[in-house]
Design a protein that fits this description.
- By secondary structure, this protein is of the alpha/beta class.
- It folds into three domains: 107 residues, Urease, subunit C, domain 1, CATH 2.30.40; 222 residues, no CATH class; 317 residues, Metal-dependent hydrolases (TIM Barrel), CATH 3.20.20.
- It is built from 24 helices and 35 strands.
- The strands form nine sheets. The chain has an eight-stranded parallel sheet with strand order 10-22-23-24-25-26-27-28. Strands 11, 14, 15, 16, 19, 20 and 21 form a seven-stranded mixed sheet that branches.
- β15 and β16 form a beta hairpin.
- α15 crosses α16 and α16 packs parallel to α17.
- Keywords: Signal.
- InterPro entries: Amidohydro_3, Metal-dep_hydrolase_composite, Metal_Hydrolase.
- This is Amidohydrolase 3 domain-containing protein.
- GO terms for molecular function: hydrolase activity, acting on carbon-nitrogen (but not peptide) bonds.
């Protein structure tokens, strides 16, 4: 929607900066004519297609990769490779010394600016399983504030009650006073306290304002808490008052509504707007009055895909109802947060912070990072500025939101400002590009707002959610996306629930029929979590297969595999055992020839591709708050093999973002983006499935140059990479003698 303020702008952050280079020399992106020879270890090229039963193109110590400038020139026997180098050329040499070379990992779906932004505020996120938490605290975890409860410092939380107390203890940040803002609360995993179970959190979701207001000083000051899913927020009554919602006169026009939302109102909507002019939006009244205020607010403030829920103030209190404090979907947050616009940092002030997050991602093996929600002009300009910096540690591929406000402040708002930036753009040289579009079709599975054909379990946390929340109908999605399909943008649709997934598949099919050129572009289902009903829990892969064999040959899925690891047990409560067991049915998809990728959706889960690999192979899940050990399997029959999991973080996401001709595998002509691992992730004898997350990332290469890393907790201190040292200007004879 064409909002003047997007969530990443509101939740501004103070992070660290980052740099990159080849050894100790600062990287520039103007390549000179030189060669790099890499050998002495295992080389896994990821060239195999999905139908290959036995992975090929895995080479040993007697093979070399030759890089010329920024591209892969040759792969072959070391003698042949070295002999192919012109005499007198400048040659650098990197001995893997038994390590493993892979194409750089690709993060297909994450949110950079909102991750940086959220780190400024009280960190209310639940703990990770112990085996991951200790690693996280030394990486991305240093970006977030520690909590103090009862005089004790805690890096993470397990209970909602502790989270609310931590928010109250930290106080309102001076730059956003009088607001108290928290980030990452998760009622789907965090019991309210040690004496309750998860199902009792249904009462919190029904009326979060009541629970917030039980904690001083959260009753008398405005409170905004972002759910970890990013699809829900929790506020108190004072938040509505401070934001000036209560008593607002309904005076929006149909044209103003269209300008705000990017959606032309239907005849029924126009009639509603016309007939209700002059009415007031109430924050308390009878149930009938509050239902009306719900609808008035959706139009007045422009969030047709969101909701403000209502609740009875006190049972038996003469039919007096209020806004409950539960906000559904991002668009419903802005009317409350817009009051902070003069107190927050701009995206340009966050650039060094975002570079540092990308540097930490590089330390996990990432060479291409995809922003899953490029929603504002300011965000995109910042990303472009970062790409021009010699300190850029990864590529930054961006999906524009279909309704993003991408026009500069001095541009006519009616102008189409969705302008492609091709990967080969001469200005950004592949470090920033944007050729895809993103739309959210539903909410969050764990947030009780995924769009389902069969309702949530009536005995679990989401008992009142029924069939969840659909942001748009299929016809609305087709209308919103048609112009982009016509103009050859590839499209990703967020779809968690099986009904949303089915609607999205039908949308892709309609777009392909209407615009034949779109048929050859990637169509990707983001998350694709709940894949059927209790009676038929794995129905969606059949639909994907049918459409791949029909009008949508490039239809595929990208899974938040953390849904298995961190929410798998919770989903049993929300969906019942049958549907929960079959979330993210990766093995079924693989058997049907459906390319799939694995992503973090950062900051929803941490960005560690080796964790994704382990979680897809083991499908281990934990029952909160018991986070020790290796968890228990959630339907091991849906596990991936090691090679399949590697494909899901390399070549498959490259295909899904239409850049597989540039990156994603080690092949002649592709860009020299690599990751070096201390151990071979394909070697089950050396590394157990449950220990893959402990494999050390030794270094990464971007455009054939080693990325300089900085310590997560000190942007000025270089992080040494002793397992990635080079010999420069060595000559072909020197390398031949070594081998």
């Amino acid at each position: 929607m064409n909002y003047t303020l997007k969530l990443p702008l509101v939740m501004a952050a103070l992070m660290l900066s980052a740099c990159s280079s080849y050894n100790d020399r600062q990287t520039t992106h103007n390549d000179t004519q030189k060669y790099l020879v890499i050998n002495g270890g295992t080389i896994i090229t990821m060239q195999d297609g999905m139908l290959s039963k036995n992975p090929k193109h895995i080479y040993g110590k007697d093979y070399s990769v030759l890089v010329k400038n920024n591209k892969i020139e040759a792969i072959g026997k070391t003698t042949e490779v070295v002999n192919s180098i012109p005499q007198g050329s400048q040659i650098d040499y990197f001995d893997l010394n038994g390590q493993t070379l892979l194409p750089g990992f690709i993060e297909p779906h994450a949110h950079l600016q909102i991750t940086v932004a959220g780190a400024q505020f009280a960190d209310l996120m639940p703990c990770l399983p112990d085996k991951y938490q200790s690693i996280y605290e030394k990486g991305y975890g240093v970006l977030f504030k520690e909590n103090e409860i009862d005089g004790k410092t805690k890096p993470c939380l397990l209970y909602l009650e502790d989270a609310l107390n931590a928010l109250a203890y930290q106080g309102n940040q001076s730059n956003v006073a009088p607001w108290y803002i928290g980030n990452g609360l998760d009622p789907s995993r965090m019991q309210f306290n040690t004496d309750t179970d998860l199902t009792e959190n249904a009462e919190f979701l029904a009326y979060p304002a009541k629970y917030i207001e039980q904690v001083k000083p959260l009753k008398t000051n405005p409170v905004f808490i972002l759910d970890q899913s990013g699809h829900l927020a929790y506020v108190n009554q004072q938040a509505f008052k401070t934001a000036g919602i209560c008593g607002t006169k309904f005076d929006i026009t149909p044209q103003q509504f269209e300008n705000k939302t990017g959606m032309q109102p239907s005849k029924e909507q126009v009639d509603f707007i016309t007939q209700n002019q002059g009415k007031q939006i109430l924050c308390g009244g009878t149930k009938v009055e509050m239902v009306e205020s719900q609808n008035l607010a959706k139009f007045q403030f422009g969030f047709p895909d969101g909701d403000w829920q209502i609740a009875e103030y006190e049972e038996g209190n003469n039919d007096y109802w209020v806004f409950s404090g539960l906000l559904n979907e991002e668009s419903a947050f802005y009317p409350l947060l817009n009051t902070l616009i003069d107190k927050i940092k701009t995206p340009s002030e966050q650039e060094s912070d975002m570079l540092h997050v990308l540097n930490i991602a590089s330390q996990q093996g990432v060479t291409t990072f995809t922003e899953g929600g490029g929603s504002s002009y300011e965000m995109i300009k910042s990303y472009q500025n970062m790409a021009m910096s010699p300190d850029m540690p990864t590529r930054l591929r961006t999906l524009y939101t279909w309704d993003g406000n991408l026009c500069s402040p001095d541009t006519d708002m009616n102008k189409n400002c969705h302008q492609k930036v091709p990967f080969d753009n001469a200005q950004y040289k592949g470090l920033f590009s944007a050729e895809g579009i993103k739309l959210w079709s539903d909410g969050s599975t764990q947030g009780c707002s995924a769009s389902l054909s069969e309702s949530y379990s009536d005995t679990g946390l989401c008992e009142t959610a029924k069939n969840g929340h659909a942001n748009y109908t299929k016809d609305q999605m087709v209308k919103n996306l048609s112009k982009f399909a016509k103009d050859n943008w590839y499209i990703h649709i967020h779809a968690n629930g099986n009904q949303a997934i089915q609607n999205s598949i039908e949308t892709f099919n309609t777009l392909a029929v209407k615009h034949s050129n779109y048929k050859q572009l990637p169509s990707v289902l983001i998350h694709s979590t709940v894949n059927g009903t209790s009676d038929s829990p794995v129905h969606i892969p059949d639909l994907i297969e049918q459409n791949r064999n029909g009008n949508v040959p490039n239809l595929s899925s990208s899974h938040l595999i953390g849904h298995v690891a961190y929410w798998g047990d919770s989903f049993k409560n929300e969906l019942g055992d049958k549907r929960a067991k079959h979330i993210n049915p990766t093995h079924t998809e693989w058997e049907k020839g459906i390319p799939l990728s694995l992503h973090s959706d950062m900051s929803i889960t941490p960005l560690y591709p080796l964790w994704f690999m382990e979680q897809a192979i083991t499908r281990r899940t934990w029952k909160y708050p018991h986070l020790n050990g290796n968890g228990i399997p959630l339907n091991k029959s849906e596990s991936l093999s090691r090679y399949q999991a590697l494909m899901a973080v390399t070549i498959n996401p490259a295909m899904q973002h239409n850049i597989a001709d540039k990156v994603g595998s080690i092949e002649v002509g592709k860009l020299a983006d690599f990751v070096v691992l201390a151990e071979n992730p394909m070697d089950a004898n050396a590394v157990k499935n449950t220990d893959i997350h402990n494999i050390q990332v030794s270094c990464t290469f971007l455009n054939g140059k080693k990325v300089k890393w900085y310590k997560a907790d000190n942007k000025d201190e270089v992080l040494n990479t002793p397992n990635c040292t080079f010999e420069t200007n060595v000559g072909a004879k020197y390398i031949a003698n070594l081998n």
